Amino acid sequence: MLEGDSLMLNVETCCKSYRVGAFGGGELLAVQNVSFDVHPGEVVSLIGESGSGKSTIGKMILRLLKVTRGNIVFDGVDISTLGGRELKAYYADVQGVFQDPFSSYNPIFKADRVFTMLRSEYFSGLSATDWHAKLEKSLDAVSLNPGDVLGKYPHQLSGGQLQRMLIARALMLDIRLLVADEIISMLDASTRIDVLNLLGDLKSRGLGILFITHDLSLGNYISDKTMILRRGNVVELGATELVFGNPVHPYTKTLLASVPQLHTKWQDVDVTIGAPPAPGNGGGQLVLAEGSLELVEVEPSHFAALDGDGAAP
Amino acid sequence: MSLKVDGLTVYYQSLRGDVKAVDGATFEIADGEIMGLAGESGCGKSTLGKSLVRMDARMRYVDGRVELDGKELPVWDDRKMNPYRFKHVSIIPQYALSALNPTRKIGTMATELLASRDIPLNGVVDEFKRRLKIVGLPEDVLERFPIELSGGMKQRVVMVLSSLLDPSLLIADEVTSALDVSTQRAVSELLVEFRDRGFVKSMIVITHDLSVLYQIADTILVMYAGKLAEKAPAETVVHAPAHPYTRMLISSLPEVGVRYAEKRLIGIPGRPPSLLEPPTGCRFKTRCPLAFEKCAEEPPFVEVAPGQAAACWKATA
Ligand SMILES: Nc1ncnc2c1ncn2[C@@H]1O[C@H](COP(=O)(O)OP(=O)(O)OP(=O)(O)O)[C@@H](O)[C@H]1O
Ligand SMILES: Nc1ncnc2c1ncn2[C@@H]1O[C@H](COP(=O)(O)OP(=O)(O)OP(=O)(O)O)[C@@H](O)[C@H]1O
Ligand code: SF4
Ligand SMILES: [Mg+2]
Ligand SMILES: [Mg+2]
């Protein structure tokens, strides 16, 4: 384990472009010049609308996607250079859990296969009893009864159950960085709190977490640093309390006004804010990212983009 | 009365016995009502929703009656349900978005879907395009592949398709949970607009996200471990819940501004019982701070105040 505030993950001006269209003739710039770092024991939340490139960033860190331009550096080593045994060691340190739990399971095998595969890969030395104790402990940590979930096929389990099994699996390894892509969007309020508190405890023991979410109150609850992404660009980045307490970019403000709250209706939020927030890109064309944005420091530990949206802070 | 469900009981068959996922559900939905359905992960929300439209092969209808617009729905008979699906009751399944075929254009998929339900294309194609426009989608979405659309755009296409024949009841299972907050808001408000425009008469909106339901639902039904816990107007569920489970669920919601480092929220201690052998009596009793001897008996789901029903001995007292 590295020291308290030493650097662990460093994402340096990363870009990703996808080939799109029927013959792959088009190009979609999904991520543009994104830079940030994650230290041990730090939770960085990545917030942005659907299609803004959040999962793409997560997948590049997990080497499930190639970086088009830029570097991802872990413990000082560019991860694109890792191969064979080094890559296996990398995955013993860095794991991801993805947003759609069903896609992580093969429907023709029982859901526990994700554990069996982990066992043969990393814990083949463990006795059956020890393995079982370890498995039950990790299921317990995500509030699952082993009897309810083991031995079943993916379609026999609810979305939230599948999701928690994946979290349990990632945490069985003594990892140092977790890429958590919308892992709690399928969970109810009470289970969410349990999982969040579990992440909080692991964080205090030094786990770094990239917490991808669309839920601002959860991001605010758990993270030290917040990064707001829009159309592949970082529009605001900084200490969580500054980004939430003093949002500078209009897009960040729009997001804050859209958070569903228990005691205030959206219409009332609009009245206090002045104008209804612009709808997310859900309604319009998917816009290709244009030139990348420049971040300026608006106050210590707080950066925001000056862009063409009339967004001067 | 648009929907009337009486004692609906649906189990899953498994090698270890029956999973009692929906047990004796009794409730009504009025014309024009948007009912939110909430509860812990695995409590039976999707099962209840699916059982009103299409039971999957492992589901076993055990008991109960479902009536839509005064006519009984043959929910236990897959074939007899055919004439009702899509036309009278329609569902947007959980994870519908990730189930979209990536190699098919949106328009091709829509055509195939309509054909598979024996709906003549020429009768609906204009209306389909009109509604795509209403939800703010450009006509050329039909020429695009799912990957070229954002989550919110795909969700709109799915919503338009599943309500195209103006069903009396639309069940939307977690349609907003994968969306960012601003798209989530836009899609939620569209659900209300669909009701207001008469595309659907009433709706069941399934989500564990009570703060979204508070924004759009008229009433909220809370389930716990396969049983109904409480149903009341949304305002009442949020501000004056009668069931201890509802109260604890509401108070475990983080408001914007609460932070782990400053105030550690607590969820509901303990966990829901296994649905293979659920405890007798009140299923919440092992986690309930108010439990007393009588809770060994099952509390009936009854009206505790006008418009508010709950299954709890303490709520009736
Ligand atoms: N394999 C792919 N081929 C082409 N385009 C892709 C591919 N994967 C993602 N995209 C596109 O890249 C953009 C970013 O996608 P990404 O999945 O990273 O977004 P996201 O922020 O995770 O969104 P969501 O909140 O919906 O999960 C989107 O426009 C998406 O359609
Ligand atoms: N095919 C099946 N066979 C056996 N058990 C099943 C099957 N499908 C679901 N179950 C079980 O039935 C219960 C209810 O599942 P359901 O999918 O209705 O939950 P849910 O409330 O929708 O949860 P979530 O919020 O996670 O989507 C769960 O405990 C689940 O494990
Ligand atoms: S019936 Fe008893 S155990 Fe159940 S919720 Fe009411 S008080 Fe609690
Ligand atoms: Mg994503
Ligand atoms: Mg469900």
Describe the structure.
The complex is a heterodimer of chains A (313) and B (317). Chain A has 313 residues and is an alpha/beta fold. Chain A has a single domain, classed as Rossmann fold (3-Layer(aba) Sandwich), CATH 3.40.50.300. Chain A is 34% helix and 25% strand. Chain A has eleven helices and twelve strands. In chain A, the strands form two sheets. In chain A, strands 6-7-8-3-9-10-12-11 form an eight-stranded mixed β-sheet, with helices on both faces. Chain A has a four-stranded antiparallel β-sheet with strand order 2-1-4-5, covered by helices on one side. In chain A, helix 4 (128-141) crosses helix 6 (159-172). The model of chain A is unreliable at 275-290 and 309-313 (pLDDT under 50). Chain B is an alpha/beta fold. Chain B contains ten helices and twelve strands. In chain B, a hairpin with a 2-residue loop joins strand 4 (59-68) and strand 5 (71-72). In chain B, helix 5 packs parallel to helix 6 (181-196). Classes of the chains: A alpha/beta (313), B alpha/beta (317). Chains A and B meet through helix 6, helix 7, helix 8, helix 9 and helix 10 of A and helix 5, helix 6, helix 7 and helix 9 of B. The site of iron/sulfur cluster has 12 residues of chain B, from helix 10. One adenosine-5'-triphosphate (ATP) sits between chains B (12, 14, 19, 21, 41-47, 58, 94, 208, 275) and A (155-161, 186).
